[in-house]
């Protein structure tokens, strides 16, 4: 294989020249003003070496990628009981869809669609106050990234989501009607919006994803069991890109989780943790160039799990 440093640099150079970039998320106002010409990539290898290029050190809104960290915390808190409240199947629907909830008794298909992540937040609030849950999340992600306290929650983004999140409010209230939200809807959503508003760079995100690439340990410290790491990866593979998950598996063949900020966290098991960022999205709400970049990466490295 060619040196990974060269591959990463080539991909960033190639992405810089591509004009078709998709559409920046407009429904969350602060995200709409992020320049579409950004592109960053960071690859953290199992031995700890980091390769980064482009805007890899610029913080962006990780949005739904936070659903991976929230799921990890909720599994840590309640274990497999979580699966009584949320499923493990791809939805085949948009990330913010409400339709399946009606016939499926208010149980979301998986923890990576908005409805599922809102339930995950409600589960965390079964034991913690919102401020504690938000603090726990921030500490967790900072620790995973290697005690990086520049990682923060962008309050402007959280507030904008609170002001414009009518669909999420509908989802939460609808699930409350089925008895699958136990806490106060506003507090659950406030927690959810703060998680989505986590701001970090590709380098920080790839560092934070290290616990998923091996046996659940980072630098000798156990974050999750090896079995849990495998299972989170399985969910990322089957559900991490909403109704685009099949296509992501087909093109890239790695577990991955996207966010409408244009980031994708992807894991090459046993090999690397990868983060890419480009704000322009495809119709499913996934980064257009981010997916192209990952496609190039697996093509040149052979890292697909298949
Ligand atoms: O709740 C929302 O709609 C956003 N905060 C997060 C959505 C998201 O990132 C979906 N990703 N593709």
Automatic annotation (TrEMBL):
The keyword Secreted does not apply. Its EC number is 3.5.1.2. GO terms for molecular function: glutaminase activity. The keyword Acetylation applies. Keywords: Acetylation, Hydrolase. GO terms for biological process: glutamate biosynthetic process; L-glutamine catabolic process. Gene3D superfamilies: DD-peptidase/beta-lactamase superfamily. It catalyses: L-glutamine + H2O = L-glutamate + NH4(+). Substrate binds at residues 64, 114, 161, 168, 192, 242, 260. SUPFAM superfamilies: beta-lactamase/transpeptidase-like. It is an enzyme of class 3 (hydrolase). Belongs to the glutaminase family. Homotetramer. This is Glutaminase. It comes from Novosphingobium resinovorum. The lineage of its organism: Bacteria, Pseudomonadati, Pseudomonadota, Alphaproteobacteria, Sphingomonadales.
């Amino acid at each position: 294989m060619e040196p990974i440093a060269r591959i990463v640099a080539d991909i960033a150079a190639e992405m810089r020249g591509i004009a078709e970039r998709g559409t920046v998320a407009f429904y969350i106002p602060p995200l709409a003003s992020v320049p579409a010409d950004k592109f960053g990539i960071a690859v953290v290898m199992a031995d700890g070496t980091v390769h980064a290029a482009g805007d890899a050190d610029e913080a962006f809104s990780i949005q739904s990628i936070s659903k991976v960290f929230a799921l990890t915390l909720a599994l840590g808190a309640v274990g497999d009981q979580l699966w009584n409240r949320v499923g493990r199947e791809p939805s085949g629907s948009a990330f913010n869809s409400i339709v399946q909830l009606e016939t499926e008794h208010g149980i979301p298909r998986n923890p990576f669609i908005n409805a599922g992540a809102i339930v995950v937040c409600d589960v965390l609030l079964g034991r913690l106050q919102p401020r504690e849950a938000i603090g726990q999340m921030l500490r967790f992600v900072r620790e995973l990234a290697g005690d990086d306290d520049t990682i923060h929650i962008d309050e402007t983004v959280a507030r904008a989501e609170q002001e414009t999140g009518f669909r999420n409010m509908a989802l939460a209230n609808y699930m409350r009607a089925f008895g699958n939200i136990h806490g106060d809807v506003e507090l659950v959503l406030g927690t959810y919006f703060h998680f989505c508003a986590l701001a970090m760079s590709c380098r920080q995100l790839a560092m934070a994803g290290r616990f998923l690439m091996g046996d659940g340990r980072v630098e000798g410290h156990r974050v999750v069991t090896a079995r849990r790491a495998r299972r989170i990866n399985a969910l990322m593979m089957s559900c991490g890109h909403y109704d685009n998950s099949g296509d992501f598996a087909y093109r890239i063949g790695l577990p991955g989780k996207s966010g409408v900020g244009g980031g994708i966290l992807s894991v090459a098991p046993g090999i690397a943790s990868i983060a890419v960022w480009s704000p322009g999205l495809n119709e499913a709400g996934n980064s257009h160039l981010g997916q192209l970049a990952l496609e190039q990466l697996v093509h040149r490295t052979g890292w697909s799990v298949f």
